[in-house]
Amino acid sequence: MENKRITDIETAEFDALIDAFIERETEDTGELQAPLFYETLEAIFQNPADATTVELQAQVVGSELQLALPTSTPPGVEVHDNEIKVNNLRFVIHLMPSEMV
Amino acid sequence: MIILPTSYSDAHQRVTLKFLVEGRQALSSVEWKTALSGFDMLHRAVIKTETESLTFRELYQKHVDSSFADPYIAELLNLHDVAQEHQAVRARFARAIVRRLTETEFRRQKVRETNLLLAYCLYFWESFAAGYAFEVEIFRDLSESGIRFKAHDIRTRRPRLSPYDLEIMGLRGDVKTSFYFLYVGRGQNLPNDFYITRFYEGSRQRTLVVMLQLAAWNQIDGETITSILTEATRHFPQPALIELERGSVVIADYNLWKQKILQRQREMEDANGE
Question: What number is the ipTM of this complex?
């Protein structure tokens, strides 16, 4: 099953899997293990994280935007030409002629 | 045809499959965050048949909740020993839901996207079923212990959705499986005065606790010992005062909390000459 998606599984095979799930799940009372419960409570009572601002510099080169990061940036943030990558999220910015906006 | 929200990714599918195959305990907190955000996104997934178009949330409401929730609660309330007997009832209802979906045009053999619909419906059903079995178990135990409390009526949908489950001495409380707090963990507040919950310590031992806001504990009165969260139960039966970033809570052993409530209620009765 590793790396399989739910939609990769044939419906008949999935029905059998669901039957086993029902059997096991109904034995479960919906409780967490203590470490996960404590971690969850701790998170509930944490102050919301402050928003972090990263100021980018930009110029138009040809028909595309060229972005640059300041020298000091938080980990996980990368910039390449017209792309901004934050961890697993990638933003690609395309300039549009004003009549199309 | 099923239309999934664009934000619903392969990562959501994989972690949900892990939950289905390996069970709740197999997922880490990070995996749970992914799984729960995936289930939230699936509320907006759309299933289209020749005759209708429904979001998964609408389908669940129309074909699962409205048909199965009230009868399930009615059966729970008729059980002699809810803790021991509810599993068989839950399994029977879950299988009936699968059958219902399979008999309708929503679950199409050969359309593997309908696997997601089945996973979605069963996940929300099981959360509902486990939560109310626990609630009935606690309500019965409180009654048998002689505690006076006012509980919401769980037999029908509207009162079931009340903002709190029970009221004791003017304090508003909820009975929640510990799994519930994973949802709250995503940026919400805990608005009620106390929460009766249960979690595993080790693979077998289930610990019943009451988590109270500090003001609510002060109303019951009693000494506490200051502790860090992860060691709260080590001090039992002495209640633990836990200081957290956004406030303090008291975590008390459920039986000790009941004793203190009973004592306070008797004192109040004596004072009122009842």
Answer: 0.87
